[in-house]
């Protein structure tokens, strides 16, 4: 005793005498649902035992989810054959929101589920398997040298629905090994560039649901020479010598091994005396400037009674003027009452030239 396709709106009542009928007016839209209850011996004309199928929701695209209710006058075992599913995909059958079994659709997009519980009114659901496997945990990895082999290990994953299909190894975000058997939790790989790398494991179930483990890292060093390096770290390319330092509260870093720059010695000031000319060729007076003024001052400072200041500036100022006046008085050239007093005129210049020869 069973039904063929059931009208979605009308539902169906199935009797133990092999008859069935719609529960309400039909819509013409049918569900590929066959219910085969075991209602006991077939008794012609006996309509006391029946199974009702109602409240049908039937998606034939998208999630392909199905739902219906079933009720009966007796406890019975019923085989439900559900169609309009995607071939080879996995579906979870639930009764009253409790998952009962995961089934794979055949090539025609059908599954068969046998219900063995008692009946009052129960709600049946068929939904695609979207549950990912349990999450594996990636273990710490050691650093390796260039050209070496890295071994990756993790804890096992499981999948209670469609079952675990494979593991995948990802390194630096790309698949390194696409199909690792579910019977192992370890794999090895080579061909890593020098530097730091990240990796994780993905567990994939038969429906294609996947979950990724935590991410671990490892480094590859000594890549240049292709061999094992046994020398001191300071011999490695790019090695930086460790330096002691202090860090102030404001973040300023002071390196303790920074030598204090040696003070640059200040060269001694060498005074280059101006040479007295072989003769004074021009008249000099207050305000005159030049090398001949410097030569005059050099000559006068030799006699501190004449020029006690002893300044050699190249400028004929008050001190130089006083020195010339003393010179003129000493050699009876001029006095305060005569013209040219305090200037280097012809008479004073002649006396100077006579003394420097």
TrEMBL record:
Pfam families: PG_binding_1. Residues 290-352 form the Peptidoglycan binding-like domain. InterPro entries: Ig-like_fold, Peptidoglycan-bd-like, PGBD-like_sf, PGBDSf. Gene3D superfamilies: Immunoglobulins, PGBD-like superfamily/PGBD. This is Peptidoglycan binding-like domain-containing protein. The lineage of its organism: Bacteria, Candidatus Yonathiibacteriota.
């Amino acid at each position: 005793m069973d039904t063929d396709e059931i009208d979605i709106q009308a539902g169906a009542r199935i009797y133990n005498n092999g008859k069935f009928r719609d529960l309400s007016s039909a819509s013409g839209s049918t569900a590929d649902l066959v219910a085969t209850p075991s209602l006991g011996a077939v008794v012609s004309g006996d309509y006391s035992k029946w199974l009702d199928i109602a409240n049908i929701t039937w998606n034939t695209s998208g999630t392909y989810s199905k739902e219906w209710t079933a009720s009966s006058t007796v406890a019975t075992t019923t085989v439900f054959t559900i169609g309009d599913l995607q071939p080879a995909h996995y579906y979870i059958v639930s009764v009253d929101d409790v998952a009962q079994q995961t089934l794979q659709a055949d090539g025609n997009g059908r599954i068969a589920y046998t219900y063995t519980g008692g009946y009052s009114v129960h709600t049946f659901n068929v939904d695609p398997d979207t549950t990912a496997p349990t999450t594996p945990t990636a273990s710490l990895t050691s650093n390796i040298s260039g050209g070496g082999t890295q071994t990756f290990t993790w804890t096992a994953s499981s999948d209670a629905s469609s079952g675990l299909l494979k593991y995948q190894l990802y390194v630096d975000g790309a698949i390194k090994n696409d199909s690792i058997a579910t019977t192992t939790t370890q794999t090895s790989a080579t061909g890593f560039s020098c530097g730091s790398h990240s990796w994780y494991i993905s567990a994939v179930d038969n429906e294609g649901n996947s979950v990724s483990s935590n991410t671990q890292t490892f480094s590859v060093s000594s890549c240049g020479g292709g061999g094992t390096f046994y020398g001191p770290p300071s011999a490695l390319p790019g090695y930086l010598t460790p330096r002691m330092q202090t860090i102030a509260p404001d973040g300023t870093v002071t390196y303790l091994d920074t030598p204090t720059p040696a003070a640059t010695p200040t060269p001694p000031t060498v005074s280059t005396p101006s040479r007295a000319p072989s003769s004074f060729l021009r008249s000099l007076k207050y305000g005159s400037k030049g090398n001949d003024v410097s030569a005059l001052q050099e000559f006068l400072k030799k006699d501190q009674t004449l020029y006690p200041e002893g300044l050699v500036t190249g400028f004929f100022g008050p001190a130089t003027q006083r020195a010339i006046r003393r010179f003129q008085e000493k050699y009876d050239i001029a006095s305060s009452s005569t013209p040219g007093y305090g200037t280097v005129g012809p008479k004073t210049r002649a006396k100077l030239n006579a003394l420097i020869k």
